[in-house]
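Re: weekly structure request thread

Next one in the queue (105 aa):
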Amino acid sequence: MSSWINVKIEIAGRPYSFRVDKEEVEESIRKAGKLISEKLSQIKQHYGDKDEQDLLAVAALQFARKTIELEDTKAGSTEQVDRLKQIDEQLDTFLKKYASLSSFT
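Done, posted below.
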């Protein structure tokens, strides 16, 4: 049985309401709203009193850039894990062959 939760957050002085079906989602939405508000405060300090839409665009760009960096890092990590698995398999094969050869001497 799914219970729906109303989540209200404020971004750039505007209230937003979301209806979600899990408490974990509620927490992540609240964290995201807080993160956006903190980022907007940082950008405001850096750029001064610009149009709110411009500040939101800069924040969106920064979040998108960070997401791409994390995806690229994850892809690189996946390739490294695959390579390590391949090396592990090669070592395992070598050790099995070596063990079978040493049992004959």
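The longest helix spans residues 52-102. The chain has one domain: 5-102.
Next request, please.
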